[in-house]
Automatic annotation (TrEMBL):
CDD domains cross-referenced by the UniProt entry: LuxR_C_like
PROSITE patterns per UniProt: HTH_LUXR_2
Keyword Nucleus: no
UniProt-listed SUPFAM superfamilies: C-terminal effector domain of the bipartite response regulators, P-loop containing nucleoside triphosphate hydrolases, TPR-like
Family matches, as InterPro entries: AAA_16, P-loop_NTPase, Sig_transdc_resp-reg_C-effctor, TPR-like_helical_dom_sf, Tscrpt_reg_LuxR_C, WH-like_DNA-bd_sf
Domain of life: Bacteria
Record-given protein name: AAA family ATPase
Keywords (A to Z) from UniProt: ATP-binding, Nucleotide-binding
PANTHER family, alphabetized: TESTICULAR SOLUBLE ADENYLYL CYCLASE (PTHR16305), TRANSCRIPTIONAL ACTIVATOR DOMAIN (PTHR16305:SF35)
Residue ranges occupied by any HTH luxR-type domain in the UniProt entry: 946-1011
Amino acid sequence: MLGPVETRSVSPVFIGRAAELTTLLDALDRAAAQGASPATGACGEPQALLLGGEAGVGKTRLVEEFTAAATRRGAVVALGGCVEIGADGLPFAPFSTALRALREALPEEFAAAAAGQEEELARLLPELGEAGSGRHDEQGMARLFELTVRLLERVAAGHPVVLVLEDLHWADASTRHLLAYLFRTLRAGRLLVLASYRSDDIHRRHPLRPLLAELDRLRTVRRIELARFTREEVGRQIAGILSAEPDPVQVDEIFERSDGNAFFVEELAVAACQGNCTGLTESLRDLLLVRVEALPDSAQRVARIVAEGGSTVEYRLIAAVARLTEDDLIEALRAAVGANLLTVTPNGDGYRFRHSLVREAVADDLLPGERSRLNRHYAEALEADPTLVAADARVMRLASYWYHAHDAAKALPAVLVASVVARRRHAYTEQLGLLERAMELWDAAPEEVRSALRPVDCTEAYPPCGCDPATTPLRYLDLMAEAAVAGRFGGERERALKITKRALRLLDEDPDPLRAAWFWAQRSRLVQAQARGDGWHELATAQDLVRGLPPSEVHAEVLALAANWSMLHRPGPEAVAAAERAVEYARMVGARDIELHARLTLSGLKVDSGEAETGLAEMRQVLEDTLAEGAHQVAARAYVNLPSEMQSVGRDREAAEILREGIAFTRRYGLLDSEAWAWGNLSDALYSLGQWPQAAEAAAHATRVGHGAKPRGAGALKLAHLALARGDLAEAGRQLATSRAHYGTHDPMSQHSVPVARIALGIAAAEGRVDDARTELLKALDAGFPPGTHRYGWPLLLAAATAEADARALPAARPGRAEILDRLAAAVRELTTGAPLWAAYDHWTRAELRRTEGTDTAETWSPVVGAFECLDRPYDLARVRHRLAAALLAEGGDDERDRAVELLRLSAAVASHLGARPLADSVARLAQRARLTLGHGPRQAGVPADPAAELGLTSRERDVLRLVADGRTNRQIAEELFISPKTASVHVSNILGKLGVSGRGEAAAVAHRLELFTARPLTAGTTH
């Protein structure tokens, strides 16, 4: 009955998927919306979507329908697909294809967006020019990612753009990393990014699985999963294919056999319509081969050739491999296209299978010898005529063909050349895979092939040892060295560690101290990056190996790394000596980058040791030199270290200017970790300068920008510091925990551990946990304050002295107080005061120690206020003015009282402006106790002071007392206030001490008698 009915393998009617298509179109509307976004200042709200589903379920058809609708709505669609040969293909292939389409569609906008960064972006799009040949580093890939995202945002700023990346399950590692970065950081532009993948291919160890898990945690990414068709939808699909209403029995049969998979419905419907009994066999894989086996022999042969050639194969390459006459080839291709087996590529120069499932079935049906023979034919054809494929894909395709042809003599050189291409594109994970493949081929390749290879042609990490890389034969160790660096740069550090371990084992058998030192230095970096330790053992081993050897680049690098490590961990004379030798050796061997790094380290050590002006001048010179010479990595480090050292001597305003310049520089060159460090340092400077909203914004940038954990940890710590100063203890605790998690415990540094201890101590003191505060202090005192760490030590000592003074009336603080105060006083005597800022901190801390004894007077605090009046630190000045006011009021004279009023007004104004609630509360309580009017209006008589404030109860203690008065137990209080029972117990003890009572019942009685929980008007004139 259905025999004469016209059939199609694809239904012309779009079946189902209405909800999914609506979701995509709604996302496009949001992305394309006109008007500026308050958050970004750009038009629209960028959208990120993942489309998953099993093979054949209809992802491609949905994407086609959506992109057609998007085009009708005026959007530019840029489509890129991952190639099925995965790591053998060109890294970033889908992004390269999509960017090429975007450039063709919007040439002027694209050129303007890429202006100034063509050299770097050429790594993805060779049409932009020659890719930069600059030094490779760990931030190289991140830099490329940042520039790519910025390019997309700029192109999409004035025009809606749909970026589609298909078949993500085949994506190379670099493509996955770039997509993850794009989804995490996309903030502006009228851009929609849609990536599709096969869900049934994502097995437990599939490399895409971790990426999907990461993206699922992003609130900005929506995931769409396509389900199979229902029986009703299968019936409608069959009707579209057959152009007639199908027999219900046939629909039932096809639905049962296909289980609702759209592609299998197509194949079964056509097979049934054509009366092909093979289509009803048990194996669906056999079904996929039905159409192939029905073709003429020449068309079947061409189908097998195309199946092994890749996802898409160029016509001329097919012709060279098939070796048919042109007429016979055209007829064979026409038969394959007519059977809906192959389709012509959009640009019209090649062919691909209509569905990858069919391609996989045909490829799997090849015999092992047939497969290697076809790959050999592909490789020979491509070698004979390199123009058969696009220039940017040629090297990778050739390496893949020779490798799968199992010809080590041809494959080894081809794979090494491909690894160079991967490195130049910053595709370090793909480079590592190719180098591992080269190591696999090494022993199988003939000696004459290996001896003809040179390090200069295929490696950059070749450890300099006095020989000429252009004339010295390539060694297996050179491959290992390049692979270790590729693993480090690409984030594959475990693989890199294994490679260095094997290399050092080989060097034990055939000693070469210089090479061994180089590998130990690499291990030091990897161990630190993998949180396996602080890396000093490895560096010390490297130093032992180079000791006594003639100067070399390796020698200079080891010394420079050791000096930098010592500056961060154990600054002192040994670090200075190592830095001086590193500078000397680097100059002798002409290693300019190493010299600049070592000079920066040496000048920083000089500042830390007390030679501030000399060290800062040298750091400025290094910054000027790096900018002039284009040494961007060292310049980025200088933009972080120079202002940091300025801050260490209290020159925050000058540091802030340089940091803003540094942020612009690092952002321009995509140096993300350096940018994150600069944001963190800027937050510190702005905090000191009293610009707290801007400081919070800078700290938030630090937590978002960098790839490394430590700069994000520093940003979180700045946010904790701000929250503590504002009295938000819960937020301070959260950010402190985040900071600790980012810093880890494997690599302790004073610049991290001491500020962490300071914030932890401050939170504990604010919550009345005296013992916990002291524990944090003692851990820091036991570790000591090496040279250069005074900038972190002074705030910690001050916080500890202030906490002890505040707690002097608490019974819980009495045990152990004498020992703590002795340790504090000893530390104060030992810490340097070589800059006006630290001399001021010295005076302040000593004054707080006198306050712990109740012996501080106005004479104690006046010099402290005078010291801070000369510094640009308004919050610190407000705090010491409050202390001086308290001392003046204690002395009781009218002149002292008038002066105290003025000081408190100034402190209150600063506290109010900054939102420093603890300081504002302290000022208000002091004014209330002294019956002072701080505002300009007349004081209202008869307004009582706040009894809770007079008793010294903190806001948290008031909450606890309210619950005590209600008869709650410590556990119930803990549950109500989301604190631990231990903390609740500490609060209750503190409250009993402040109220002067012996039990909870008495405390409740006092609270009710004083009407502590009755609303009271604020004291007139007090600034809040």
